[in-house]
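quick one, 243 residues, struct below
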Amino acid sequence: MELSKRLQAVASLVSDGYRLADIGTDHAFIPISLTESGRIPGAVAMDVNRGPLLRAQANIREHGQEKRIGIRISDGFAVLKQGEVDSAVIAGMGGPLMIRILKDGESVVRSLKECILQPQSEIEKVRAFLLEEGFFFLEEDMVEEEGKYYPMMKVRPPSDIGKTGKKKERFEQEWSEVELRYGKLLLKEKHPVLRKYLQREIRIRLQILEGLEKASAEQADRRRKELEHELRIAEKGMEYYAV
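---
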């Protein structure tokens, strides 16, 4: 199965040989592609709504992957048991919903070896949540498709809670404001798509600031301060590329 650039990038982050849960699967494109290519042995395609699962089921059947991919109606990880899968993909949904799904499914999430996350909004909040909860960032990627930019990340959850009630393993990582906003690993790797995105961020804010010069001081002062701060953060991001 041929995937879009965004979905291909997400799928490429899944480790070979891992059993996969695709949360909010919609058409089941990612699990079909991965099982069809032999990269993973099997998957569970899950969605909270019946309509998307029916579409997923039809696609799975069309590609002859019924024996490798199961389907389940589930709100997040609700009907998934610990140890059933090794990896989970959560892609194409808003950041707050993604955080809620990870919180609600904590016991299952902590049993996973990796999570592949592609939030569509409030990415900075998602990164902050993951760090606070002790997830370890393994890899980040970013693609541009039809003028839109899609950052994504591969993280390892902290291990499950032991008999003492204490977390067995917790990863502590300190990220600056610019790293939270744009991705520490993307910045360190000088990712070319992030550079293009940063250039756009700077250009847009300079244009808006120029327009605010014509507005009254009272109307524009607060917005000007916000934009100037955002501009400084984006410019700090660009400094990574100058080294």
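The longest helix spans residues 217-239.
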